[in-house]
Design a protein that fits this description.
3 strands
C-alpha cells in the first residue's frame, strides 16, 4: 500500500495523465487509478483535486447526459495542463533517479 503522505504529492500528476488519454469523469478516474495499483483512492479524494486542477486551468469540465442517471461532469486536459503534466513527469524522473542512486550506489548501510 502506498502511504497517503506520498500519494498527496503525486496524485495530481497521475490524474492529469489519465485525463490526457481521454475525456473522462470522476468515478472513471477513480477506477482507472485502481487498475494501476492506487487501490485506496476514494472519489472524495479525487474531486477536490479535480477542482484544483480546473481552477489552475490544467483541465476543463463539461456536463454531459448519462445513459445511467444524472449528467456527468467530463474533464479534458488543456494545453497548460499538458505542460504541467510534462513538468510533473520530468520532476518524477529526477526524483526516481535520485532515490535509485541513493539506494543502489550510495548511502551508508542500505543493506
Amino acid at each position: 500500500m502506498i502511504p497517503s503522505q506520498m500519494l498527496k504529492g503525486i496524485l495530481e500528476g497521475c490524474i492529469l495523465k489519465i485525463i490526457s488519454s481521454k475525456e473522462t469523469y470522476g468515478y472513471e478516474i477513480s477506477e482507472e487509478l485502481k487498475k494501476y495499483g492506487f487501490s485506496k483512492i476514494s472519489e472524495g479524494t479525487i474531486y477536490p483535486l479535480l477542482l484544483r486542477l480546473e481552477k489552475n486551468n490544467f483541465i476543463v469540465a463539461e456536463y454531459r447526459e448519462s445513459s445511467s442517471g444524472p449528467k456527468r461532469k467530463y474533464f479534458s486536459i488543456t494545453a497548460e495542463g499538458i505542460r504541467e503534466l510534462n513538468d510533473f513527469y520530468l520532476s518524477w524522473q529526477e526524483m526516481c533517479c535520485a532515490i535509485n542512486t541513493l539506494f543502489y550506489s550510495g548511502g551508508a548501510d542500505n543493506e
